[in-house]
Specification:
This protein has about 200 residues and is mainly beta. About 10% of the residues lie in helices and about 50% in strands. The chain has 1 helix and 17 strands. The strands form 4 sheets. Strands 4, 6, 8, 9, 11, 14, 15 and 17 form an 8-stranded mixed beta sheet that branches. A 5-stranded mixed beta sheet has the order 7-10-5-3-16, with no helix packed on it.
Length: about 200
Amino acid sequence: MILNCNGEKDGASLGYRFRFAIIVVVILVLQPFFADAGHAGNISVSVDSTDATPGSQVPVRVLMENDFPVASIIVPLIYSAGNLFPDSVSFSGSVVNPDQISTATYCYDSSLVRIIILPTITEPMPMIYDPGGLLATVWFSVSPFAKRGFCEIDTAYVFDSLCFGPRRFYYNPEELQASDLIGTQIYPEFKPGGVRVVAGD
């Protein structure tokens, strides 16, 4: 006999409890695979490439292609520090649903721009429908001292960990990710782009 959390006797055997725990663990482990198996679709994000001169301001389009409705997407972009400086992020002409939350942040210290699209709690849930299109436009200022060449804009992927005594937990504070209507986490494909400085010293 086992005492439950109230201090009362529980008639379940240890063997029964162990088998039940194993079943629960297996279901939790396999759940993402079942969710993905029922999710037949693709999503990709790409960054346009454009030409610019030193000291100019240039728009860089971030595009998305999807063949299923997307509820949310977070696109972290890392750019060439010292050559490019983000000024603003525009959602004008974007395929983002007007009822979704669309915002962006940028940090000069980490050379990082984040495009964040989140759903609102409404019925029906707002989605980005296929085939996708323009997600956002990032406006960059090009340094007046930028050298001739290509300044790549790629996605950021950061792997980190936290320690609690002897235990270590791993997580990704920055990564390209999206979700569908039922909350399945999806990792889109990514194609980098950038700014080509065509004149200068």
